[in-house]
Specification:
heterodimer, A: 118 residues, 2% strand, B: alpha+beta, five-stranded antiparallel sheet
Amino acid sequence: ETLFHSRGRSDLAPSPLRRATPIADLRAAQRFLSKYGWAEGPSGAGPPEGPQGAALAEALRRFQKVNALPASGNLDAATLAAMNRPRCGVPDARPQLRDKSTAPQTPPGLRPRARPKR
Amino acid sequence: FLQMLLPGPGRQLEGSPQSGGTLAFAKKTLTWRLVGEGYSSQLSVEEQRYIFRLAFRMWSEVMPLNFREDLTAPAAAIDIKLGFGRGRHLGCPRVFDGSGQEFAHAWRLGDIHFDDDEHFTPPTSDMGISLLKVAVHEIGHVLGLPHSYRAGSIMQPNYIPQGPALELDWSDRKAIQKLYGSCEGAFDTVFDWIRRERNHHGEVTVRFSTYFFRRSWYWLYENRNNRTRYGDPILILTGWHGVPAQDIDAFVHVWTWGRDERYFFKGTQYWRYDSDRDQAHTEDEQGKRYPRSISEGFPGIPSPLDTAFYDRRRQLIYFFRGSLVFAFDVNRNRVLGSYPKELADAFPAIERRDHPLRDLDAAYYSYAHKAVFLLKGSAYWKVASDGDRQRRAGLPPNGVFPRQPIPRKWFDVCDVHASTLDM
């Protein structure tokens, strides 16, 4: 049980063991950008370890822009803070890279085969 | 994590025409369940289920789908399953990260998982993370909505502590209606209700609200906000006292310098409503009982009625039944000699063959639009007002303009599942 003492459980205190590891360095930031769809490529399926180099700067810039942060492309403290905010686990829709329908692209393998024109 | 975004086996994979192929449910009523092995340890099960019921209802209030909690069907038959878990959970390929950062995730057309290491709280609390807000967000994903960066959207990826009341704003409504279309359906009656109030100068002011009645529930429509009241529809029983609980045929407000009489009509009877005491009269000043038969109170008027409205300028009540219209003179308490008439004659079509002809659902004078509307099914015909006739010479008196879809004038008048009407 998670520890609490007041009836309304307002003093609920998750155990320190089960806290999310803060995103505090470049590697964690790269993983964040890849996990939530900011890595390169139309389907957002960037490399598992995340964008590198120029791609990283570009991904950071995009992330900073939608979070109303200065789009410097640098991993600064404000950007790390934004990455650590409570959030939904579904990847983000990135306005620039996805088309209007913002529907996740079904991987080619699963796309229904088009019938050859008569 | 792409797998997580794809629907699970056996889900409906239908692109709806409005969405241009984005995945959307093709069923009118979706079932959901908080899975037994996924109860949170932080809130009582009842609280969790209540919050999810409210979350689903909030989407149902703005889109044509209904949501029903199903506690009995086999799990595989449930459309949306919700559950809490810590770290590795519920067979999900995505591991939760503990308190902080990721607090929930969803599979489109599939399921919703909440990280039970987060401090989820009920809507009444302003601490922790509102479970209601997160649930509404994740349900939005399951229904097909992506994240949005628009301020005020429920689909923002990051949690933003909510102000006093959580509601779906205009853009979220349009986004979901883009996938599922807008709400349609016939009404039993529509009317404006006049309220007399005193302002802080002590002067009497008049305000009005528009009501839409359907079966046993109703909506208040806020004309200035172009939407129904938050939390509507509610049961007629809860808002109106002493009138029938469902299937009301008509409402008429006889309002002149000397008279202020409000009547509900159903079947062969009518009720008079006391606005000040907010309940139907049981008898009049002479001790005569209500409800009464329509033929007694309005001689010459048949019943049951389709609908009726009061024309303040001419001090006439127009009663509609089938293809006939009866104009009733409230001062002489009788039907005008030249009536009944065919609906198509009394309210002629301005464009040929574009006319409701018979069996109206509602006839309604709107103070907001200063015009009469005839409603039938999902369409309305506007009756040419004096202003219209001044602007366009040659329009016939009481001429009706071509049909228009109701949802394009009155927005988000949506049903919810009967099991959530009392919320």
